[in-house]
Amino acid sequence: MADFISRLLAGQDSAVYEPLRSWWLAHGWPPLVLHAAWAVVMAAAVTAWILLSVLILVWLERKVSGDIQSRLGPARVGGRFGLLQTAADALKLLLKEDLIPAGADRWLFVIAPVVVFVPALLVFVALPFARTWVPADLDIGVLYIIAVSSLPALGMVMAGWGSNNKYSLLGGMRAAAQLMAYEVPLVVAVLSVTAMAGSLSTISIVEAQRQGWFIANPALWLPFLVFFIAAMAEINRTPFDLAEAESELVAGYHTEYSGMRFALFFLGEYAYLFFVCALGTVLFLGGWLGPVLPPALWFVIKTYALILAIMWVRWTLPRLRIDQMLGFGWKVLLPASLVGLVFAAFWAVRGG
Amino acid sequence: MSEATTPLVPAGLAGLQGDAVTVAAGPQGAVITTTPERLPEVCRRLREQGFDYLADFTAVSHPEPLRVVFRVWSTTARQFAQVVVPVEQAQPVCPTITPFWPAAAWQEREVWDLFGIRFAGNLDLRRILLPENWPGHPLLADYQAPDPNHLLPTIEPDPSNLPEGQTLINFGPQHPSTHGVLRLVVTLAGEEIMAVDPVLGYLHRGIEKLAESRTYPQVIPYTDRLDYVSGVLNNWPYVLAVESLLGVTPPRRAELIRVILGELARITSHLVWLGTFANDVGATSVFLYCFRERERALDLMEEVTGARQTISFFRIGGVPYDLPEGFAERTRDFTRYLRPRLDEYDALLTGNRIFIARAQGVGVLKGADVLPWAVSGPMARASGVAIDLRRSDPYSVYPEIDFAVALEKEGDLLARTRVRMTEMRESARIIEQALEMLEPGPVLAKVPRQIKPEPGAAYGRIESARGDYSAFVVSDGTPKPARVRFRSPSFANLQVLPMLCRGAKVADLIAILGGVDIILGEVDR
Question: Cα(B464)–Cα(B485) distance, rounded to whole angstroms?
């Protein structure tokens, strides 16, 4: 455990970190201070990056949906492309009154947005943007990511219960039921990749794709499909946006939230959108691998390609009903992911 | 209109003559006058004679006496019979007719609400448009309105005697998917619907009461505000009723203009329906596509009158002036533009697996339930009942026009979607034919400067975008109508909602409500 925390904090083989560490140790200063200071720097960098991506993603979503729906989208704040629209929205949300409804479970109500948002930061710890651009290359990177990324559903249930609103409660319960139905296929799909790569480390998984991205491997087509569908469910987007389901549950679990608390849900949602697509890039699209362009740029390009695909789906399809969604998760996705796993395992053994 | 059909006294009623029952032949079918005591017997005979559809149900308070007036229709013989039941002024009571026509359940609630007539045997005789604690009955002649600033305490449903594990939840009046201010008190067990009780009246503006203090032409703009989504179609039943009171026939060109604008309004209405229904099931983009198409139809409306949605273009005796130059060409452009778009939406929705999963087998209305509950319009046709008043009770120039009545058998949401998609295509065909048939000529018949029909009563009835839309106008010989009553299809169709929702999920409730296609303006009036 101590080893795990130390590696988590250390950022391991970072190109900047190693010379810094040698310099630091040469002075005979305690290594723990450097670890702590480095962790703070990395945390700040990750947070800044996520907030920036969210600003871009929200703008992008509004532009993309505008395009799909044959309208302009934001076109006034910040020039004719509305570049500052999200910043203006964020400012508005910050300035809004912070309301806690009468009869709400105050403690749950206050902590729920945090429970949803914080894992969105934590997952980025093990996501490599390039060979050395990773806060921590964990041996169990994928396992860690999967574990942390299922926490937000807990926050949604807390918000649903804490709001003292029946619509919120229905939304929270849907989030919990949905988590069960898609998380298992998602994990099994990811297992197929780890079987193929022979490692749980995100870095090793990308390195294993030097001979060819996993999406090009027929054994992983089915897991990729399962992953893509389950990922949409993971981030609660149409056709799986049942926990919010505007036309049914008003806004589901966050009906009663306003101001910055609502903004945390919103930020979390888009941070997850980025995260899920980044994970897809690592697992199937060869991460940062690519010719000519800098590796981190390749990574972002692939991630945005997946994001655009998910946005396209969102603005095209209707929403499933809860029983249909659960049935689909258990009866279609799960068997499909298992078949995929077995197939991938055979492929890996024979090929290896 | 039914002037053309031979008015017949239903044979089975002959034996009832005398002994407090009189049967007379009128221009719009037999008129049977009876007493509350003899009413069940009359109803039974009428049911036996094949009068299977309650076309309208209301009361009239002046000129005296206070009386219940309803009209039944035989969908096979295409005949009407009107029943008039004078009731006691002081303590008005009338037996319920729900055993013969279940559709009367809500209509009786409405008459109780507005006239204070009790219906013995109606088990759910609550007020329906006004709050339960409202003072008085507004359509009585001697009604005194309460202080408009006086707020009534609201009465909330009591959840205390629900079974364990069930909960009450209010859908609306403020909810994104109730299409206006409808409130549904829903009993839920988890996600499953146990019971639905629609609470109406949040958009009740008293239009029938207002009409009593307006002259005949002044009532027309109010009608647009009933079903504000299909604007001009609402003018039609009212002007038909007044024209039949006056004995005026509009010129042919006016009839064609009415058909063209009416069918355009039907298209705009169905487009709004398609968009909002898609939105209800979660496909948000279709909503904006439909509104884009609707804009073009509204542009055409605007060319005619300057208004876009509630254009009030029909007049008693025709339309006030001719269509603008080039209107025909631009309308043809629109219908040409619309067709490929509709194919696209078919691909996007009715061809989509998720949409089919959400719509197929959901909210099924059995064909056998259609007529007893007086369900009409696309709802009825989706359940395999081929009643389209443009064919079944023809009016205007529709008999000369070639169009198909959209029909599906399944009675579910998918069938309703298909019916409405087909109807838009058929409406485009009707418009094109009517444009071909246009010939120069007058557009307004000669009507007196002051419209003052002889005392009497008449119905006007059309197929609106939602179904059987009729107006009942009573004249007392003054320039103002004594009573104007609108039988709105949304009101009757909404009545079956609790039946359709039994055992459905929350998400289905929203979709089923969307599939009924109610407009609160005409439900609440």
Answer: 16
Count of domains forming chain A: 1
CA distance B168 to chain A (A): 9
Size of interface A-B (CB pairs under 8 A): 82
Range(s) of the domain holding residue A166: 102-351
Distance from CA of A223 to the nearest CA of B (A): 22
B282, B285, B354 ranked by CB distance to A68: nearest = B285
CATH at B490 = 1.10.645.10
B6 assigned to some structural domain:
no
The answer to whether the CB atoms of A70 and B506 lie below 8 A apart is no
Task: Look up residue A129 and give its two tokens.
Answer: 């943007």
- The total domain count for chain B is 2
Is B285 within 8 Å of A315 (Cβ atoms)? yes
Give the pLDDT score at A183. 86
CB within 8 Å: A320 and B355: no
- Alpha carbon separation from A6 to A52, A119, A137, A347 (Å, rounded): 28, 20, 12, 36
Q: Which of B78, B105, B120 finishes a domain?
A: B120
The verdict on a CB contact (< 8 Å) between B352 and A317 is yes
Q: Chain A residue closest to B177 (CA)?
A: A247
Query: ∠A207-A212-A215 over CA atoms, to 5°?
Result: 100
Decide if A197 touches B, using CB distance below 8 A: no
CA–CA dist B165, A322 (Å, integer): 19
End-to-end Cα spacing for chain B: 24
Based on its alpha-carbon atoms, the radius of gyration of chain B, rounded to whole angstroms, reads: 23
Q: Please name the residue of chain B whose CA is at the shortest distance from the CA of residue A174.
A: B191
Q: Which chain B residues touch A321 with a CB distance below 8 Å?
A: 357-358, 505, 507-508
Q: With contacts defined as CB-CB under 8 Å, which chain B residues touch A167?
A: 169
More confident residue, B9 or B84: B84
Q: Does A67 touch chain B (CB under 8 A)?
A: no
Site of tokens 């499933």: A320
Q: Is residue A132 part of a domain?
A: yes
Q: How buried is A297 (Cβ within 10 angstroms: 0-12 exposed, 13-18 middle, 19+ buried)?
A: middle
**Residues of chain A found within 8 Å of residue B283, distances taken between Cβ atoms:** 316-319
Percent of chain B clearing pLDDT 70 (strictly above): 96
φ/ψ of residue A327, rounded to 5: -60, -40
pLDDT in tens, A84-121: 888 888 888 888 888 888 888 888 888 999 998 888 88
Handedness of CA A241, A270, A110, A178 (dihedral sign): positive
Which residues partner with B84 through β-bridges? B33, B69
pLDDT of residue B447: 85
How big is chain A, counted in residues? 352
The model's pLDDT over B230-248, given as tens digits with 9 standing for 90+, comes to 888 999 999 999 999 888 8
**Closest by Cβ to A321, choosing from B167, B279, B505:** B505
Cα B325–B329–B335 angle (5° rounding)? Answer: 135
User: Could you read off the pLDDT of A131-168 as tens digits, one per residue?
Assistant: 766 666 777 888 888 888 888 888 888 888 888 888 88
**Residue A8 pLDDT grade (very low, low, confident, very high; cuts 50, 70, 90):** very low
Whichever domain contains B33, its CATH number is 3.30.460.80
Mean pLDDT of chain A: 83
Shortest Cα distance, chain A CAs vs residue B406, angstroms: 25
Instruction: Say yes or no for a CB contact (<8 Å) between A320 and B349.
Output: no
Say whether A319 and B282 touch across the interface (CB within 8 A): yes
Which ipTM was obtained for this model? 0.77
Whole-model pTM?
A: 0.85
A206-218 pLDDT, tens per residue? 888 888 788 778 8
- Can you give the residue range of the structural domain that contains B53? 11-120
Nearest by CB to A321, from B169, B190, B507: name it: B507
By Cβ distance, the residue of B278, B505, B509 closest to A318 is B278
- Of B213 and B49, the structure prediction assigns the larger pLDDT to B213
